[in-house]
Amino acid sequence: VRLYENVTQEQKRLEKVKNEFIATASHDLKNPIMSISGYSDLLSKAGPLNQQQQDFVGYIQSSARNMLELVQNMLQLTEIDLQQMQERREALDAVELLEAVVNESQILAKEKGQTLEISNTKGSVQVEGDSLQVRQVYRNLIGNAIKYTPEGGKVSVSSHTQDGNLIIQIRDTGYGIPAADLPFIFDRFYRVRSGKASEIEGNGLGLAIVKSVIEKHGGQVRVESEVGTGTRFEVSLPACKPGAALNGI
Ligand SMILES: Nc1ncnc2c1ncn2[C@@H]1O[C@H](COP(=O)(O)OP(=O)(O)OP(=O)(O)O)[C@@H](O)[C@H]1O
Ligand SMILES: [Mg+2]
């Protein structure tokens, strides 16, 4: 028993060292990436550039954007692990926030000729938590739905309450996820390697963040999917009782 305890303690220590390393490295990578991104923006305006030069600058800009997103996601995950994520506990209107993210995502859907609609949202539902993190969850799920659905498809978002929980559903008519991959999609860096989805860029961190944040908020996330038909994600979050005072607020 003693030996086992030592081993797990050593594992925990190593895990912590690893996370701190990732956190520091991601953090330090941010400045140079911002500089690549900033100067390539300036370069495109410093012109006149010929078409080929313009294309090259475009590649630099989009790679810098992808790198920045990866670094931000890694940072967020290590913060969750190290429990450095700020405990901002506020009463937030989780339905209003959902509507806001749907609105800001309309432009992405439009670019792909998709319809993005929100329905069944009745009034406001208060949840105790961190609005930045919950917004990130919505962005990742709605972003995925748009990203993994072909042109002309449909993304539907809805919310309702059930047994004191707020239930949010995000459905799409996209590529779907093979049954064999479903158990792993919430793992860090896991991406589906077959079919259309594998041709789309990503790092496999979005859903890992969704799961960590939702569980930290006392909720759950579930998924159902069929290849060629579409995918449905369902998030449940404990709703505050109407009129109940929040702890610490
Ligand atoms: N709505 C969806 N429809 C089909 N496949 C999906 C959907 N959402 C997620 N997936 C699959 O699950 C995998 C993991 O998703 P996740 O959001 O974690 O990573 P990602 O989108 O690849 O990268 P990123 O870190 O930029 O979010 C994706 O690579 C994709 O194959
Ligand atoms: Mg994603």
Task: Describe what you observe in this structure.
With 249 residues, the protein is of the alpha+beta class. It has 2 domains: 2-81, Up-down Bundle (Methane Monooxygenase Hydroxylase, Chain G, domain 1); 90-238, Histidine kinase-like ATPase, C-terminal domain (Heat Shock Protein 90). 49% of the residues lie in helices and 18% in strands. It is built from 5 helices and 7 strands. It has helices spanning 2-46, 51-81, 94-111, 131-147, 206-216, and strands at 90-93, 115-119, 126-129, 154-162, 165-172, 220-226, 230-238. The strands form 2 sheets. It has a 5-stranded mixed sheet, with helices on one face. α4 packs antiparallel against α5 (206-216). The radius of gyration is 20 Å and the shape is globular. Adenosine-5'-triphosphate (ATP) is lined by residues 73, 140, 144-145, 148, 172, 174-177, 185, 190-192, 197, 202-208, 231.
Topology:
Blueprint (H helix, E strand, L loop, with lengths): L1 H45 L4 H31 L8 E4 H18 L3 E5 L6 E4 L1 H17 L6 E9 L2 E8 L33 H11 L3 E7 L3 E9 L11
Parallel strand pairs: 2-4
Antiparallel strand pairs: 1-3, 4-5, 5-7, 6-7
The structure holds adenosine-5'-triphosphate and magnesium ion.
Adenosine-5'-triphosphate (ATP) binds next to helix 4 and helix 5.
